[in-house]
Amino acid sequence: MNNLKFRAYFEQYERMIDNIGIINQNMILVDFTNSGELESIFITDKIHVMQSTGLLDKNGVEIFEGDIVRNTQTGSVGRVHWCVHNTGFFYYVEKDKKDYTVFRAKYNLEVIGNIYENKELLR
């Protein structure tokens, strides 16, 4: 069984922090300095927590919720998100107005950014 993996984008610092710990729905553990010193942080609307899909793109990069991916076979670009109704990770392509499953396309997907640091990639 794989452990769940999370990361978070902090608007205040304009910084993505990998490998955060989840305490509960309101609090995370963060090592801002990579020193092993963990801080407990309350989640606010300025902290965006993203879960890993557990999948790697065609280049071996881990795919997270919030990533912007390009399908190298079709050229389409979309945002990765969790779909409650279909219980899975999908990427939404705005021009198609359609969701595509990350699992089926993973060998053709390439992470090109994320929605917090590279919004312009979705235009």
Structure explained in plain terms:
It is built from one helix and eleven strands. The chain is elongated and about 45 Å long. A hairpin with a 4-residue loop joins strand 1 (6-10) and strand 2. The longest helix is centred in the last third of the chain and has 4 residues, at 102-105. By secondary structure, it is mostly beta strands. It starts with 5 loop residues before the first strand and ends in a 9-residue tail after the last strand. 3% of the residues lie in helices and 52% in strands. It has a six-stranded antiparallel beta sheet with strand order 4-3-2-1-5-6, with no helix packed on it.
In short:
By secondary structure, this protein is mainly beta. The protein contains 1 helix and 11 strands, in the order ββββββββββαβ.
The dominant shape is elongated
Cross-sheet strand order for the largest sheet:
4-3-2-1-5-6
| Most strands sheet | 6 strands, antiparallel
Average pLDDT rating: 92
Backbone CA Rg: 15 Å
N-to-C span: 37 Å
Order of helices and strands: EEEEEEEEEEHE
Strand content: over 45%
Q: How many helices?
A: 1
Based on secondary structure, the structural category is mainly beta
Unreliably modeled segments: none
Helix content: under 10%
Secondary structure: number of strands: 11
